[in-house]
Amino acid sequence: MHSLAGLVGLLASISLSRAAPSSQNISSDSYFYGDSPPVYPSPQGAGTGSWAASYKQAKEFVAQLTPEEKIILTAGVQETTSGCSGEIKAIPRLNFPGLCRGTDYVNSWPSGIHAGASWNKELVKQRGLHMGKEFHRKGVNVLLGPVVGPLGRIAEGGRNWEAFSNDPYHTGALVYETVQGLQSAGVGACTKHYIANEQETNRNPETENGQDIASVSSNIDDKTMHELYLWPFADAVRAGSASVMCSYQRINNSYGCQNSKTLNGLLKTELGFQGYVMTDWWAQHGGIAAANAGLDMVMPYTQMWGSNLTNAIANGTMQASRLDDMAIRIMASWYQMKQNTDFPAPGVGMPKDVNQPHKVVVGKSIDSRETLLQSAIEGHVLVKNTKQALPLQSPKLVSLFGYDAKGPDSLSPTSEFMNYSPPIQSNHTLYVGGGSGANSPAYFISPLDAFQQQAYEGGTSVLWDVHSQDPDVDPTTDACLVFINAYSTEGFDRPGLIDDSSDALITNVAGKCANTIVVIHNAGIRLVGDWIDHENITAVMFAHLPGQDAGKAVVDLLYGRHSPSGRLPYTVAKRAEDYGSLLHPSQPEGQYGLFPQDDFTEGVFIDYRAFDEQGITPQFEFGFGLSYTTFDYTGLTIGKVTQNDPYPAAAQIQEGGNPHLWDKILRISAEVKNIGSRDGDEVVQLYLGIPNGPVRQLRGFEKVGIRAGQTRKVMFSLNRRDLSTWDVGAQQWKLQSGTYKVYVGRSSRDLPLSGQFSI
Ligand SMILES: *[C@@H]1O[C@H](CO)[C@@H](O)[C@H](O)[C@H]1NC(C)=O
Ligand SMILES: *[C@@H]1O[C@H](CO)[C@@H](O)[C@H](O)[C@H]1NC(C)=O
Ligand SMILES: *[C@@H]1O[C@H](CO)[C@@H](O)[C@H](O)[C@H]1NC(C)=O
Ligand SMILES: *[C@@H]1O[C@H](CO)[C@@H](O)[C@H](O)[C@H]1NC(C)=O
Ligand SMILES: *[C@@H]1O[C@H](CO)[C@@H](O)[C@H](O)[C@H]1NC(C)=O
Ligand SMILES: *[C@@H]1O[C@H](CO)[C@@H](O)[C@H](O)[C@H]1NC(C)=O
């Protein structure tokens, strides 16, 4: 380990010698990275809003603790006795049973990206609720999610699939529902990874060829921080997230778990966060410095805190009130989740000793089944459908191809970290990505299984060859289904956005089969430009990461029992180069090689904001997805902005920030008619062109079921934050004066209705 002082000195001199990056996208007058401004002291949780009663109980509890007992609450233990991942020891004297995270024998739910692709707020809330119920049954106090960082800035980012979307508004809306759903089951959320954790490459410090390489620094200006990366965290805090996980990498050269600006400043002051900040596993790099910067809990355990915290209080380097605040925040979250009453023993039924067989206490439940399947169905996005290929019309013979069509050869309750990231999961259907976000299904229904079941019930014949790269195609087959995937795992960024062998498999089949339908289980962006216009490729579906019901969900869609209603939560480019400098993660190169620097010079222009700004036509735009029916848009109405003072009135900060940011100040509505012959769900999307901002930004979406021939009126209620941009000088959200453009439609580029209003 370096001496910290030496390291800091070196960093400072390196930053000072750097030329200020130049970019028109950065509007702040002082654009100089390398520094994170000090924000001290750490704000004490005040018990605002709905937290008042929990804070009262927590303060009474903590008042009874010895300093050593307070310290117990602040870090995990090395030897776990419960099988929990990240365990806080019990304090039996006061009937505190400890805390548990992570579990087994539950369901494999659709991943974040899949939930994002559903664009269904109510369904996402139900997903959270049912996951929470499973964790509660197993005595798990905290679920290590949801993920809102990464936000998908880097197209090849290895953990983008764990989060919902590449848009902050969309992510914010869905994290709000998830936290509410999850916590209504009495399980605390741990919204992560705070903040700007946008690549896996160099996320942690490492030693290579005898040289120490620091973790990458995400260098972000204040405006971009607020308008993109902090935005969904504000929604998570507003929803009451019990905890927030600080991230591995550095922000402006200061580690995520000891950055006083992001923890004390943005999170605990500006957003009024009442819960506790917990490290990612082994993300602690500072002892007392981290405590003073706002860190409350270390995982999985610590050698830097312990009795050093009381020593630091004794010698004056830390206030006693900081330790109290850590303990109060942790206990308040426990009371806030009502875990003091009727909570199962931590980790009930989990292996106490991995070598011993253990009693399986199943956390999954039958009444989750409908939500799980519906969530799996709605995250599929149909992007091509020609020659009436879909839905399948009572085919006599279908042929299945591709390594992704079949289930795994074996299932075990543990998920493993691989030490590399292959471009595909070549052995079976990809139903979840790799790393700590992986899960172990209660069972698994593959596409092949589901097609067999369909054949059994519906009288179709099925042929398959899931191994050949150039399979024979029976000339009498009605449809050829090709299943491929795009893998991604924590710890690595993806090697690319296509893989040649899957593309060759697709074109080999398409060369022989006039009705070739491609299904891609993709853990992130997958390019299709090499074959999308092939005349024999009649339909293409992005199937994302549906979890254990993958096969059943896709067959229900392909056979038309549901009309596809997913929409892309990211932009699919025609060519990888179209993502520009945001294609690959940044590497430790050149003069900053030992201190990798990642300057977010693009500002807010990521994903569709960048494509719009640069006038690049994507293959499939953000928000795009087909249905089996067609919707017509009319009747745009734009109300009057009811408050137009540029800044929100001063008020006591509540969770999420100034409560007036959530004041509803504008109504917009539109009428949507289902003009096709089938019932279907439409995702009605509202984009605003805010003066001085990107061409368009998502500021509303509603998923509505509309029967064939019927019309529905869709209302959008916009709040002050939705209409504001971050004013760096005033450190406030500010309404712009000028003309705002309004667009309503089917995607970020298919916007049949438009209008405007002025402030
Ligand atoms: C923002 O950055 C992109 C990429 O560097 C550039 O193409 C674009 O012109 C910039 N926009 C403005 C307003 O300067
Ligand atoms: C990072 O540095 C930029 C440029 O000085 C500044 O605008 C921003 O507030 C800093 N953010 C953090 C979290 O340190
Ligand atoms: C106190 O901190 C030092 C240096 O970080 C560490 O070596 C030591 O183990 C810590 N002591 C305890 C009791 O955690
Ligand atoms: C105070 O105690 C802490 C924890 O043991 C230690 O890291 C720090 O160096 C001490 N400071 C002084 C001024 O003694
Ligand atoms: C597929 O299975 C083989 C043989 O068990 C194994 O070596 C390989 O790592 C697996 N591939 C992936 C992507 O898991
Ligand atoms: C399309 O499929 C037919 C077989 O049905 C084949 O003869 C033809 O060459 C294919 N077209 C292309 C462009 O590969």
UniProtKB/TrEMBL annotation:
Reactions listed under catalytic activity: Hydrolysis of terminal, non-reducing beta-D-glucosyl residues with release of beta-D-glucose
One GO CC term on file: extracellular region
Keywords assigned by UniProt, alphabetized: Carbohydrate metabolism, Cellulose degradation, Glycoprotein, Glycosidase, Hydrolase, Polysaccharide degradation, Secreted, Signal
Annotated Fibronectin type III-like domain residues: 682-748
GO biological process, one term: cellulose catabolic process
SMART domains cross-referenced by the UniProt entry: Fn3_like
Source superkingdom: Eukaryota
InterPro entries, per database record: Cellulose_deg_GH3, Fn3-like, GH, Glyco_hydro_3_C, Glyco_hydro_3_C_sf, Glyco_hydro_3_N, Glyco_hydro_3_N_sf, Ig-like_fold
Gene Ontology molecular function, alphabetical: beta-glucosidase activity
EC annotation from Swiss-Prot or TrEMBL: 3.2.1.21
Subcellular location: Secreted
Pathway of action: Glycan metabolism; cellulose degradation
Signal peptide feature range: 1-19
Top class in the EC scheme: hydrolase
Main function: Beta-glucosidases are one of a number of cellulolytic enzymes involved in the degradation of cellulosic biomass. Catalyzes the last step releasing glucose from the inhibitory cellobiose.
Protein family according to the UniProt entry: Belongs to the glycosyl hydrolase 3 family.
Protein name from the UniProt record: Probable beta-glucosidase M
Organism: Aspergillus nanangensis
